[in-house]
Write a structure and sequence with these properties.
One of its GO terms (molecular function) is ATP hydrolysis activity. By secondary structure, the protein is of the alpha/beta class. It has 7 helices and 10 strands. A hairpin with a 2-residue loop joins strand 4 and strand 5. Helix 4 runs antiparallel to helix 5. The radius of gyration is 18 Å and the shape is globular. The protein binds adenosine-5'-triphosphate. Adenosine-5'-triphosphate binds next to strand 2 and helix 1.
Length: 245
């Protein structure tokens, strides 16, 4: 897997390409469980790629491996042209902070802080300007502006998901990884969330990878990767009607 010098990776043919990806765990001595078996995975620019399949088929494990949040046992994962599976933890964390956004329920929200402080934290750490107008418009669309001063521990699961989405979008990553982004939402709010993700994915140099159980959300994806027992069963591609980047 080549290491590119283009930090945005936009000269790369794919935002994510994984080959021969295997993930095994050993919960007990002399017991090895294979969670992912020789997975080949490619995501496209300006597209939402959905990972679907039965419960326990390895969807979240694959998402975490692709995002560099879980080590792989063998194989390679390239993200934005960089081999994330070969990075050490500190380099991988720095790469994620610079390029990737995550919409996982309660993932990485700091529990002792308000919604507002959680949203501002990446900007404080990066010493960049907090884009207040843009943030307030997004929070209005997501229906969570009234929660700005609320401690995140007091939020419902669906509210936490929307805060995680807002934080990911405001931070302007190249790729967003989402695990069941509408899982805790009613239909109407779920539509708002998927519309935001689709608009993000539609921009040049961007992509969304998501796990979903929802047929409605899956129908909005440009590519659907079906997992079964840790293997790719089928890949359905719906052509993106836009020029690629
Ligand atoms: N660290 C681990 N040790 C042992 N088994 C694990 C570990 N992590 C995951 N598993 C098992 O691997 C399988 C795949 O888990 P994963 O969460 O990726 O599935 P999933 O397809 O996302 O499921 P769901 O749709 O129910 O969320 C499950 O059977 C799970 O119990």
């Amino acid at each position: 897997m080549k290491h590119t010098v283009d930090p945005s990776g936009q000269g790369e043919p794919f935002p994510i390409h994984a080959s021969g990806l295997c993930k095994q765990v050993s919960p007990r001595k002399a017991e090895i469980i294979t969670l992912l078996n020789n997975v080949e995975f490619t995501a496209s620019w300006r597209a939402m790629t959905g990972i679907v399949g039965p419960s326990g088929s390895g969807k979240s494990t694959l998402l975490y491996c692709l995002a560099g949040l879980e080590p792989v046992s063998s194989g390679q994962v390239g993200v934005l042209g960089q081999c994330i599976s070969a990075m050490g933890p500190a380099v991988s964390a720095r790469f994620r902070r610079a390029h990737l956004g995550f919409v996982f329920q309660s993932y990485n929200l700091v529990p002792s802080m308000s919604v507002e402080d959680n949203l501002k934290l990446p900007f404080i750490l990066r010493k960049t300007r907090w884009p207040e107008d843009q943030a307030f418009k997004l929070l209005d669309r997501l229906g969570i502006r009234g929660l700005l001063k609320t401690n995140v521990t007091l939020l419902s699961g669906g509210e936490q998901q929307r805060v995680a989405l807002a934080r990911a979008l405001i931070s302007e990553p190249d790729i967003i990884f989402a695990d069941e982004p509408t899982g805790a939402l009613d239909q109407e709010t779920g539509d708002v969330v998927v519309n935001e993700l689709a608009a993000f994915a539609d921009r040049p140099g961007h992509a969304v990878i998501m796990v979903t159980h929802s047929p409605e959300v899956a129908s909005r994806c440009n590519t659907l990767v079906h997992l079964c027992d840790g293997r790719i069963a089928t890949v359905d591609k719906v052509p993106v009607p836009k020029a690629s980047i």
